[in-house]
Design brief:
single chain; about 90 residues; mainly alpha; elongated
């Protein structure tokens, strides 16, 4: 089954988000140095049944949206601070 491109993009973004926040986590069995250490293996061993993919992706879209908003807000604050300091520097000369 082929995933929708938007879902693929969100999955990639989720993986990057996890790897950025918790680089020590082993996500997939293909990355394991020791059997059963990855999140994927542990979920399989526990016979975990998560929410429906559509529900999980909806929740991730919300989290991802908040992260993107926070990033842009921080960038805007840096730019605004730079502009204010430039103007203040020009006035004080």
């Amino acid at each position: 089954k082929q995933d929708h491109p938007a879902t693929d993009a969100l999955s990639i973004a989720l993986e990057k988000f996890i790897r950025k926040r918790c680089p020590e986590i082993t996500l997939f069995t293909s990355e394991e140095l020791n059997d059963g250490e990855s999140v994927e293996s542990q979920l399989r061993i526990a016979n975990w049944k998560g929410p429906e993919p559509s529900h999980a992706m909806h929740r991730w879209k919300h989290i991802y949206g908040n992260e993107v908003h926070r990033t842009w807000k921080n960038r805007a604050l840096v730019v605004a601070t730079g502009v204010i300091l430039t103007v203040a520097g020009s006035i004080l000369r």
